[in-house]
Write a structure and sequence with these properties.
629 residues
């Protein structure tokens, strides 16, 4: 420990952190640096202001088995409000930085310099690998130190505007590249994203949130209308619902007028303060926006509702043409995206559907970032219904959300709305196809297997008995269709009731032969008639050789009773033939009934397949990327 007096004011200062090189005097804000055994003043820095951070100097925590203590504090600003970075020292002597952003915490460790990296190469959304991590750039920005307190590892220069790149990777990995004031080779900080509960800080050591007290019962600075704020400790902008004034939340918790927006008269489906249960959590609607894009000269508007849950932070609910999508934030490193082609998340592929420039037209309520009407972002949507991956990119940052399509009935039930929501029209990009039914195809498969089993069983038990196999000789003087072409068989037995397969064959050549048959039951005198005909014609024309017909034909007689039978036939023909062939097979199962049954089974799935295809065609006709799957 090094103790001494502030060179500027004489107040006592001490270095308790072994890694600290400077300490900020708590009395005069002078930056006091070690110089051998002496202390020297390195100018002054601003005093920290109260923010919504729950941390403070001296708090102790534990991440896993590693205990640490907060020994220093920086406040940085890039023009849209300050953020906090805390310098921590672990019991084993290691150090790190604990940064805050939008309610999340990032514990990062210095990993040295990385030569040959250039700031201009790291545009938002760029994918790269560093130190064994696959990363995606979330933000490229700059900021300067505006205030400090406690002990720090290096000197503080409030005039220096430092550039940085924030990137994330799978599993919560987070990386910051600090390029410094001159965009030189960056210092690399690697760590991971944590929740407040994961910092291992006892609740009694956390600082009370100061902004909440000042803002819960705030009033608009322009119209004096009461503003009931739902997330006062995290809001940065508030849009008055009465007069449309856009207000900034100051460091001291007070509201300051920024500009007068369009007076909110848009008929939103949800109200500010509406509470609903989605994804097993209760959310409160704290902000609303109307955004739009223009495609081929046509304006397409939609609504976005900012939802807040104290334990889970912020999420979004989007409504367009009566369709609803529940959007949850993603780290950029979790998504692999190729613009205009596809995105991948958790092993699932999402196809690019549309890419537009989104314009913020109307804001109402409170927001966790410095929102303004008129701000734009490039938005791209990738779909795998009922899910979607959404990318929004500006010049300085890129963000991703995972969307899940919700029906109006689900939203109405979630928020306990009395009136029904507007009926959806058109087809939403991530709307599930109602005609795709894997269940129907599974039932078809099961029934087909069952019918095939029955067919095989029946076929194995069938008699398939040849009761008559005869070549019938025609007399040389036989005339077509006369008594001279009649033939009688010897009596034969059919031993069990069933169908009868009748096959006729003849060596016809550019001619035909027909046989009219009568099957006489000698016991009952019942007669069953049939007619079979074969024909074969061949020739040659300008297209080459051709043929029509065949030498054999087969038909079935159904439900022939068992008994003793005689077959009478009479032949008709176009040319004299020496003979023809007859074959009768009793109890011969037909494949036709199985085929017809399978075709009947396919009617509903085939109809659904057609409707599904038409649905997808309609969906992708609305894509401005013209790429379907």
């Amino acid at each position: 420990m090094t103790q001494g007096k502030c060179p500027a004011c004489g107040a006592a200062v001490e270095f308790t952190a072994g890694s600290a090189q400077v300490v900020v005097c708590g009395h005069c804000q002078t930056v006091v640096a070690k110089k051998g055994l002496d202390l020297e003043a390195h100018g002054k820095v601003g005093a920290v202001v109260d923010t919504d951070s729950p941390l403070r100097l001296g708090v102790e925590g534990r991440v896993g088995r590693e205990a640490y203590r907060v020994v220093g504090h920086l406040q940085k600003d890039h023009g849209a409000g300050p953020w906090d970075e805390w310098y921590v020292e672990f019991d084993d002597g290691r150090t790190g930085w604990l940064s805050e952003a939008e309610g999340a915490f990032y514990l990062l460790y210095a990993e040295g310099l990385e030569p040959e990296l250039k700031l201009q190469d790291f545009a938002p959304g760029r994918r790269f690998s560093l130190r064994g991590h696959r990363l995606a750039v979330e933000e490229r920005g700059h900021g300067r130190v505006v205030a400090a307190e406690g002990q720090l590892p290096h000197d503080v220069d409030p005039s220096a505007d430092s550039h940085y790149v924030d990137a994330s990777g799978p599993g919560g990995v987070f990386v910051t590249l600090d390029f410094g004031a001159w965009a030189k080779e960056p210092e690399v900080f690697i760590g991971r994203k944590l929740k407040l509960t994961e910092l291992g800080i006892p609740p009694d050591q956390l600082r009370p949130r100061v902004k909440q007290v000042a803002l819960v019962q705030a009033r608009c600075t322009e119209c004096n209308g009461p503003l009931e704020l739902r997330a006062p400790d995290q809001s940065k902008r508030v849009a008055c619902p009465y007069c449309g004034a856009l207000l900034e939340v100051g460091r001291n918790g007070r509201l300051a007028f920024l500009e007068l927006l369009q007076k909110p008269d848009h008929p939103f489906a949800l109200e500010l303060g509406a509470r609903g249960t989605l994804d097993a959590a209760e959310w409160i609607c704290i902000g609303m926006m109307v955004r739009s894009c223009e495609v081929e000269g046509v304006r397409y508007p939609w609504e976005e509702y900012l939802l807040f849950n104290r334990g889970r932070g912020f999420t979004w609910l989007m409504s367009s043409n009566g369709h609803w999508v529940f959007l949850k934030p993603l780290d950029a490193g979790e998504v692999s995206a190729r613009s205009g082609v596809a995105a991948h998340l958790g092993g699932e592929r999402f196809v690019a559907f549309q890419r537009v420039t989104a314009v913020t037209e109307l804001v109402l309520g409170e927001f966790y970032w410095a929102v303004r009407a008129g701000e734009t972002a490039t938005a791209e949507e990738f779909v795998a219904p009922p899910l979607s991956v959404n990318e929004e990119e500006t010049e300085t940052e890129v963000s991703y959300t995972r969307g899940e399509y919700l029906s109006p009935e689900v939203v109405r039930e979630a928020f306990g709305l009395k009136e029904p929501l507007p009926t959806p029209h058109g087809i939403a990009p991530s709307q599930p196809n109602p005609h795709r039914s894997a269940t129907a195809w599974r039932w078809v498969g099961l029934w087909a297997a069952f019918l095939l089993f029955i067919y095989i069983g029946v076929n194995s038990r069938a008699a398939n008995e040849v009761v008559l196999h005869q070549t019938v000789a025609l007399a040389p003087d036989a005339h077509s269709g006369t008594a001279t072409a009649v033939w009688f068989s010897e009596p034969f037995e059919i031993h069990q009731r069933g169908n009868l397969r009748v096959s006729l064959g003849a060596n016809v050549n550019n001619s035909w032969l027909g046989v009219e048959g009568e099957l006489l039951n000698q016991d009952t005198q019942e007669v069953i008639g049939f007619y079979e005909e074969v024909s074969l014609y061949t020739g040659r024309d300008s297209d080459g050789a051709w043929s029509e017909g065949g030498l054999e034909t087969t038909d079935y007689l159904s439900s022939v009773e068992a008994g003793r039978y005689v077959l009478r036939t009479q032949a008709s023909f176009s040319k004299q033939l020496p003979n023809y062939r007859l074959r009768l097979v009793s109890d011969s199962p037909r494949f036709l009934w199985l085929f017809c049954s399978l075709m009947l089974l396919l009617i509903v799935p085939a109809w659904n397949l057609l409707r599904s295809s038409l649905f997808e065609s309609s969906r992708w006709s609305e894509s401005n990327l013209k790429q379907g799957s």
